Amino acid sequence: MDRRRSPRVSAHLPVRIWGVDAHDLPFMQLVSVKNLSSTGAVIHGMRRQIKPGEILEVQFDDEKAQFRVIWTGLHGTHSAGELGLQRLASEPCLWGVALGCYSELVAEG
Fold it and tell me: What confidence score (pLDDT) does residue 4 get?
């Protein structure tokens, strides 16, 4: 049974993220969104270790929002380099369109 509160849409969107890694070192990296919803996203391509609970800044185009790291992919597994992110309630939705419209934009693309 899926515990997600909102539907996910597969995506391949470039985003810039920055914050502090598991070694308390600041970083900035370009990654890709693997899937998204109105409240969160899964990103892949991370080269740094990040602790769950950490707050990261995410930028898509000219928009920025803060997200909490909910889970991290384990090294040596198919989810290595992935992060599950949840948008902080006070932050804007980065994707710029209602999620139901997103698939139409990709189709027009």
Answer: 52
